[in-house]
Amino acid sequence: MISILITAYKEPDTIGKAIEAFLNEKIKDSEILVAAPDDETLAVVNKYAKRYHQVKSFKDSGNGKPAALNLLLSNAKGEILVLSDGDVYINQDSVQKLLKHFDDAKIGAVSARPLSINPKDNMLGYWSHLLTDAGAHNARLARASSGKFIVCTGYLYAIRNIIEKVPEDALADDAVISYMIWNKGYKIGYEPEAIVYVKYPANFNDWMLQKTRSAGGYTQLKKYFGSNFPRMRSFGREVFFGWYRALSYAKTPKEFYWTIMLFFARLYLWLNIFIKLKIMGKSFAETWKRVESTK
Known about the structure:
Elements (H helix, E strand, L loop, with lengths): L1 E6 L7 H9 L6 E7 L2 H13 L3 E5 L5 H11 L4 E6 L3 E2 L3 H6 L7 E10 L6 H23 L10 E5 L12 H11 L3 E12 L5 H13 L4 H5 L9 H15 L3 H27 L4 H4 L8
Helix pairs in contact: 5-9, 5-10, 7-10, 9-10
């Protein structure tokens, strides 16, 4: 059996499209488990549950995505789990393309490829395309092809059902799960043709909230795994390896200017993370905030 796990929070306008995209995959012997803390989202999920026996809804505690994931993990029956969010949707056959990798017994997880649906004609939209295409895609492609560790995207990835619980204070649950699987001796694959469409932040404040949560989560990994773990993201890696890809992605003077502005934004981001998490010791609850413009 294949278990599809979707976590959502106040997403009644998008959860239906997310569920339908998975139903259109027509995967035999599958279940779609959706967790949300709010009644509005669950009301939409329950409409699908009445029509499709494989759709099941769960009300989580509202204590964050890791807690919701743990609820779904404890109820999933599948040998392979497909994890996604309630505010994104997948391209046709994306799940099938992820699943084919598990014919290799050494594969423990496979990441899909996020694509931005934001317009590219403004700075924040351009950043979303640059970071997903020139940044994450190229990095995952290169590292996976040489057998190196990669972090799966939380928007869509598949894993073997070997994870019982995720630390509930984790800021980057996708990174934590990726490391947990890697530490069990499995390889992590990348499927660039498994596409998940994502709406990224449309204003700088939301951009900072989202990136602080995702990039800041990497500073927690030492707490869970000690010092000896392969690093895919850090301020140093961005400085030494990311600048050339970013500048090469720009095709016009305006895009070149936006790229330079991104360098300053990323510097501000990492300084903000260092101050909040290292110096001020901010907690998970204080750091995790909802990003409204991505809904």
